[in-house]
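Q: I'm writing up a methods section and want to include an example of the input and output format. Could you take the sequence below and give the corresponding predicted structure tokens, formatted cleanly so I can copy it straight into the document?
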Amino acid sequence: MPTSAPVQSNPLLSGAVTSMAKNIESVLVIGMGKVGLLVATLLHEQGYRVTGLDRQPPAESSFEIRQGEIGERALPRDALAEHDAVVSCLPYHWNLPVARTAHRLGRHYFDLTEDVATTAAIQDLAATARAVMAPQCGLAPGFISIVGAELASRFEQLRSIELRVGALPQHPRGLLGYAFNWSPEGVVNEYLNPCEVIADGRRGQVPAMEELETIIIDGVQLEAFTTSGGLGSMCDSFEGKVETLNYKTIRYLGHCKLMRFFFHELLMKYDRKRAGEILVHAKPPVNDDVVYVHAAVEGQQRGRLFREEFVRAYYPQPIAGQIRPAIAWTTACSVAAVLELVARGELPASGFIRQEKIPLKAFFATPGGALYRK
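A: Here is the clean output for your methods example:
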């Protein structure tokens, strides 16, 4: 598939501004990396009053960006108080302080985290929240949970829900066949932390980088293996309803074996920060990437065993005058879609939002979610 296209505004985002009153009118987006900047741009084009916040703001933007330190001792309380909602596009370990501030101020909170402990703490906050607490609004967890739940809803009785996602370079080089287009901290955590599953009807945990399998998408032979965090809150929602529920990351063949060697035989698992630095130095980001999504559900439909699948390969595409990498736009569009549904009143106005409770049809009907339909 071509890796480039004429740069133009995406027609699915044009004309998104309406006169309809919304529950959210102003949004603070914290973290102006590739994803954060695109989240803010999408929301700005949809008519929200958007302010960005970053330690090193980009030189140009179509909305206000403030410079400021972010961390445990430098929370953006004043900036957050001026907005109806906040989207955190920060590394996972900074999300909880932002969520606590949003909780105290009664502001809607959204993030992209895959970290299980952070999400559990935010879920505890949601029990007394006056606004929405919605972590895990990215690709996986996030969109893949919405797809998995939609497929599961088509069955009278479930046997398995298997979710697979991979963000990869289109033109891999070297034995790893990878490029770090996503947070190295997040990737290292996914490769080392325990993975939640439901196996033989029982909820539990399995090690990361195990249960290696082969998967083929569009004729490309790939591998998939267990990684942490991709299920989000799916185990909570489907415990007692399905025999098998698991999530695996998709990579090119041979990747898992090499990462096991790196983390376990070279003992880099004991120095996660340094491990991330080494990997990014060796495999920096690329623009020509591809995001593979593979969801498969098996069970009983009208008295017979059947399998439903949702399989897609997403490529870079033009949004707001620039070609956006696949991992950037799929992540940014997902959180923008969830925020839009809260703003429209199509999701609860307070409490914890489980991604798998979001209807796929409603998600696709948002400006950001519509880009996923292709």
